[in-house]
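This part of the workshop introduces the protein records we will be handling. Each record describes a single protein and holds just a pair of labelled lines. Instead of coordinates, the fold is spelled out as a row of discrete tokens. To make this concrete, we reproduce a full record directly below:
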Amino acid sequence: MTTVVFGEALVDDFVTEQVVGGAPFNVARHLAAFMAPQLMITCVGNDKNGGVVHGEFERFAMSEAGLQVDKMEETGRVVVERTVKGHRFVILPDQAYDYINPEQALAALESVDASTVYFGTLAQRCPRSRDTLYALLDASAANRFLDLNLRDGQYDERCVFHSLHAANVAKVNEEELQVLFRWYFDIHPSSPPLSGDEVRAACAALVQMFSLDGLIVTLGHRGSVYFGAEDEPLVHRDNPAPPYVIDTVGAGDAFAAIFLLGRARQWALDVTLARANEFAAAICAVPGAVPRDLGFYDKWATRWR
């Protein structure tokens, strides 16, 4: 059974280097590193950056059945600017991943036995890729995993609303949860603080509102919480802190990848969450969202065998 990953593969353009990224591509590369069957459906340009992305497909021995090349549009690029407050990320418009071809995507989907379709919101900002995504979802009986990944200026409430309705399981961080609270319960940052019971009740209401099987809320170094459709919330606060933190880029993508890996390998839910927390923490101790040394994965594969 294959995890189908849909969305952006792009290049983060720093002054001194270019780093391949995109939340879906990070997830797909992690899965590939653990030898989990996956199919990345994305689109790059016929340019130098497209070649860099292609090189990552080769480095991780990933199938290129879902890798499209657009001769008109450029490979996705994020310009990283250094400011006095840290890095500022400028997500450029009209990139190749905004134009994923539906016929090619459906052909790629038909080539595998899909168990899960992973998707987010950035690749839905333009009608072409958004329509392609929903064509894939309509064509497959696979489970749907939504990694919300809200990026400033790149989404609207309608996109989020339809995405949540399309999903079986959704993953959000605390900031994204606050956005959902504001939209659907009129709870604002300026509102009186919610008690723990009120937060749990609101999350349970989201599960019911969107007919989700589960809602995952990641809490950074404090772990994660899983809200199921009927059971009590499953809380994991055993998230080990890394010996040092280089950056937190990609921690959420790492969590999502291991959650999907656990589902594919039929780990118990509590085991899956614990391992996802642990791996996400470890990613914070290496530079970037995906380790440059593939040997990084060996100890985890051995430990979880």
Observations:
- The radius of gyration is 18 Å.
- The CA atoms of residues 259 and 272 lie 6 Å apart.
- The mean pLDDT is 93.
